[in-house]
Write a structure and sequence with these properties.
2 copies of one chain form a homodimer. Chain A is an alpha+beta fold and 161 residues long. Helices cover 47% and strands 18% of the residues of chain A. Chain A has helices spanning 13-31, 37-49, 55-66, 72-84, 126-138, 155-159; strands spanning 88-91, 96-99, 109-114, 120-122, 142-153. The longest helix of chain A has 19 residues, at 13-31. The radius of gyration of chain A is 17 Å and the shape is globular. The relative contact order of chain A is 0.15. At the A-B interface, helix 5 and strand 5 of A face helix 5 and strand 5 of B. Strand 5 of chain A pairs antiparallel with strand 5 of chain B, so a sheet runs across the interface. The structure holds a DNA duplex (30 and 30 nucleotides).
Chain lengths: 161, 161
Amino acid sequence: MEHTPIACSHHDHEHCIHDALEAARNLCISRGVRLTDLRLQVLELIWQNHKPLGAYTLMEMLAKANTRRVAPPTVYRALDFLLEQGLIHRINVLNAFIGCPSPGTKHQSYFLICRTCNIAIELDEPQLGQQIQRVAGDAGFTVETQALEVSGLCANCASAV
Amino acid sequence: MEHTPIACSHHDHEHCIHDALEAARNLCISRGVRLTDLRLQVLELIWQNHKPLGAYTLMEMLAKANTRRVAPPTVYRALDFLLEQGLIHRINVLNAFIGCPSPGTKHQSYFLICRTCNIAIELDEPQLGQQIQRVAGDAGFTVETQALEVSGLCANCASAV
DNA sequence: AGTCGCAAGGTTATAGAGTAACATATTCAT
DNA sequence: ATGAATATGTTACTCTATAACCTTGCGACT
């Protein structure tokens, strides 16, 4: 593998999850917001999969883990919290959610999404943001959020053809 | 208005719709695909509004125009056809569809979406595409489609605050 | 002109995604 | 301890989209 973006490389997954949850805990403490059991559980499920997860898939996972029914508002409220805190991103084209590897740092949402294996690789490209900002500015547009979703084949899947 | 992207400027709307439909007809003829009454009707409704329209809004419009019930698959099939032919784009963040001002020319989907008036301004920025292509290539990713959805305030709404 | 084949559209039912409104339970500051 | 605020539970519903199957109608070919 020549190119290995974080989400793509083979890595110590347990360690990766642990770090993400630890970072989330610290971030929430420093902000004075509550990372409750439910919210933490949702974040953990999202990280364990390492691929975009739909709200209803999460619901089923929660129901199994807690051995009781979990209704949509429960999971959506947790997701809303995690989105607000920048701990996860929403992938619009998939109606799904994925963990953010660098919460805390304010950034936009740029993703490479593999149509075969469904992996979503988050890009860290401030320059791209600047160019988008400039183009939008030329049109007199005030940018609030940016969402770039590039679909195609990841390195692994492309070489597997 | 200093900056006037196509979708934003005051223009002869009838003329604009007419041109779009004419272009669509020609494109379909040259490709040997059938722009049926239904498909044309959907395309026309989308252009008449000039703002992203949801599938169910379209359904109601069709039902009224045709004075009979129209079921979801009917409108979704027409939308699928128009998407395939590049005559419309899908705005993921709005679950809505909008006419493409330059079908025929292969291009990606870059939109500025005003959260107040809901207008969606399509950008024509091949350079942006190149930069995205480059960034994705650096990650070993093979790009198939790009979707950029920038949310914020359009020039009109920003000045109206 | 008939007819065969296929693409388009109709119909019913259901899956998937998200929210409104209200009730209950926790937590926190005082 | 108590009240206010925050978080979660519950029910019901809306909106978005697709599956599966049937019917229609165009169009190429003899």
